[in-house]
Amino acid sequence: MSATGDAQTVRDIIEANCYLVLATAGAAGRPWSSPVYFAHIGFTEFFWVSSPEATHSRNIAVRPEAGIAIFDSQAAIGTGQGVYMSATAKLLQDGETARGIEAFSRRSVAHGGLEWTSEDVRAGAGLRLYRATADSHWILAKDGRPDHRIPVPLT
């Protein structure tokens, strides 16, 4: 597949799915993965709402490096394709949430969920807005070799 075709595959997978798997690690390096409903701006900024007490949120507070996988979990065996990303994640503070919560709310409403505002994710609220910024994307090469990922530039 061409670089243009690979980039379109990445975009299509991200658009078609509601959940990403967020992989984080705590201060001691113990890994943790969590599926989270997400919204995105472009194909490098990913937003979700979580409790600051969730394991992945506590992990991000001490170690912002994260891995992300987005894929169709209903694909038939041997036919699936996914997007793999390395990213840096953070809790967005008051004053940083407007763009992300607007994107999150728009996608949530489109999927039958709630409308969200910055007030819903302010400091002291039970849920907060997080952002992961991806610095690289990969997909699996469909060449029969196990775990043969190819980088996909989206620029």
Oligomer: single chain
CATH class descriptor name = Mainly Beta
CATH fold title: Pnp Oxidase, Chain A
Residue stretches low in confidence (pLDDT < 50, at least 5 long) are: none
Going by CATH, the homologous superfamily would be: Electron Transport, Fmn-binding Protein, Chain A
Number of helices: 3
Fraction of helical residues: 10-25%
Largest sheet: 8 strands, antiparallel
Which second-level CATH architecture applies? Roll
How many runs of DSSP E, i.e. beta strands? 8
Cα-to-Cα separation, first versus last residue: 17 Å
Structural class by secondary-structure content: alpha+beta
Overall radius of gyration: 16 Å
Overall, the morphology is globular
Order of helices and strands: HEEEEHEEHEE
| Mean of pLDDT | 93
DSSP strand content: 35-45%
Total number of distinct structural domains: 1
